[in-house]
Design a protein that fits this description.
Helix content is 3%, strand content 24%. The protein is mainly beta. The protein has a domain of 115 residues: Jelly Rolls, CATH 2.60.120. The strands form three sheets. Strands 2, 3, 5, 6 and 10 form a five-stranded antiparallel beta sheet that branches. A four-stranded antiparallel beta sheet has the order 1-11-4-9, with no helix packed on it. Strand 5 and strand 6 form a beta hairpin. It is rod-shaped, with a radius of gyration of 36 Å.
Length: 203
């Protein structure tokens, strides 16, 4: 059988090879193409390590196993079937009064409309200047209907400027696009600058 230089009786590697080639610490350079059945590291069974950028020249990598570690590559099918769950938080807020005038009893002049449908998980109220009352609780209306609460959005302590979270009596509510949010409150000597925030998510 001729060697790789075509010599019938010459020494050197035969073409094709008739036995395993062991080339410890040698490099193979400048191949145009390499056709292999299997590719392993120099142990014969381990993983191949790529030390430079691997250019696929617009060809696909196919037949990937499902990933088991964070840096493993994935197929398009696996990616599409294992999309991460993303929470789309959505909050909307508006001012019910001016910033400095002590709040007077009854319906407040401010209101705002919700620009899109979302699920409201809770309502929080804010004051620019905290109330003198030790428990100060605004009434919140959605489209003219007073909200009923399992926990009121009350300013618990005198001087608080952030209320406790207010939760709906029947759990989170779907607020429709265009719904009007308004409020009413009791007179207080110092409470001013009432704002209302609806906290939730887009399902």
């Amino acid at each position: 059988m001729p060697n790789i230089w075509g010599e019938t009786e010459g020494e050197g590697l035969t073409n094709p090879l008739t036995e395993n080639l062991l080339a410890n610490d040698f490099n193979a350079l400048d191949f145009n193409e390499v056709h292999l059945n299997e590719l392993h590291d120099n142990s014969g069974t381990g993983k191949i390590t790529v030390h430079e950028e691997f250019n696929m020249t617009n060809n696909k990598i196919s037949n990937l196993a499902d990933p088991t570690q964070n840096k493993d590559a994935v197929t398009l099918e696996y990616f599409n079937n294992n999309q991460p769950t993303i929470t789309n938080f959505y909050d909307v807020a508006g001012a019910m009064t001016d910033e400095t005038t002590p709040i007077q009893v009854g319906g407040q002049i401010g209101s705002f409309n919700v620009p899109r449908e979302f699920r409201c998980d809770k309502i929080v109220c804010y004051l620019r200047t905290g109330a003198t009352a030790a428990l100060y609780t605004p009434t919140i209306y959605i489209d003219g209907n007073a909200v009923t609460w399992s926990q009121f959005p009350s300013f618990v302590n005198a001087g608080d400027t952030v209320s406790q979270d207010g939760y709906f009596q029947s759990g989170p509510q779907t607020i429709l696009a265009g719904s009007m949010i308004s409020s009413a409150a009791n007179t207080d000597a110092t409470a001013a600058g009432l704002k209302v925030a609806l906290i939730g998510v887009i399902p």
